[in-house]
Amino acid sequence: MKLGLVTDSVSHLPFAQALDLAQTLGLSSVEVATGNWSESPHADLPVLVSSVQARAEFAGMIADRGLSLSALTANGNQLHPVSGPDQDRVVRDTISVASELGVPTVVLMSGLPGARGDAAPNWVTTSWPPENLGILDYQWNEVALPYWRALAAFARDKGVRLAVEACGGQLVHNVSTLLRLIDAVGDDVVGANLDPSHLMWMGADIPAVIQALGSSIIHVHAKDIRINKPAASRDGLLDTVPMEQAADRAWNYVTLGLGHPDGAAFWADFVYHLRSVGYDGTLNVEHEDTLVNSIEGVTRAATMLKQVVLVEAPDWQPASI
């Protein structure tokens, strides 16, 4: 396995300085966002689409530091009933740029439609009242699956894999919905970007998640959460308090090692379970802790992961008889 950095974690730094940080920390790769929900501080997508020279300069800045580009990220809501087409153009342009650069993976979320006739997305989280099931049927069968089959065909033609990140507030938000999408669209091009933090706050057991997803995992984000027990005990884990009000939220994204009482032991177990299902890709540090300086947080995360990551391929052989 290799360690990398989602450069949006240090979005305030110029691209060169973000790359320098990754190099200084001894990381192997970076992942760069291209738009939609990200302000894309490190990539000018229209320029990368139109200019061979710009793509060469972009790739050269990364390679000159001994780094590779593990993925481009186009997280957004391409199924939004109003702005979806604009966000879809960012997704498709990102796939095209990835293809031109030889980048194997584009990270994105499933998107979330509205109910029929809605002008805003609608995240259905319970099967009651009964109309909720009708909304889900419309979202999946009339919006999401036709879109994703077409997008998968586009990515397949470009030789790029789509790593879908299960996340609250998206149609794909857990293991079952992620596998539903993969099974319907094709596992040759669509797989999982495992960001455990999104599943942690919903109460999922991460080793069980890894075993269930298995070879569908094609990319990984290393990000943690911390349950704020007083708020969670009072209100549960569905939370609409703004992220910056950390003390009032039921859970928060936190720097790796600060979210679990056993600290690095959780991440050692995480790495071992990934190895057990055959994953040997990149673990990309993603920092979204509102209470910790981003450079400090990235540094702490990288330092801890270097203690537990499995770098070399296993070489065990059964004894001959």
From TrEMBL:
Keywords on record: Carbohydrate metabolism, Isomerase
Record domain Xylose isomerase-like TIM barrel: where: 19-306
GO MF annotation: an example: isomerase activity
Record bears the keyword Lipid biosynthesis: no
Isomerase listed as a keyword: yes
Protein name as catalogued: Sugar phosphate isomerase/epimerase
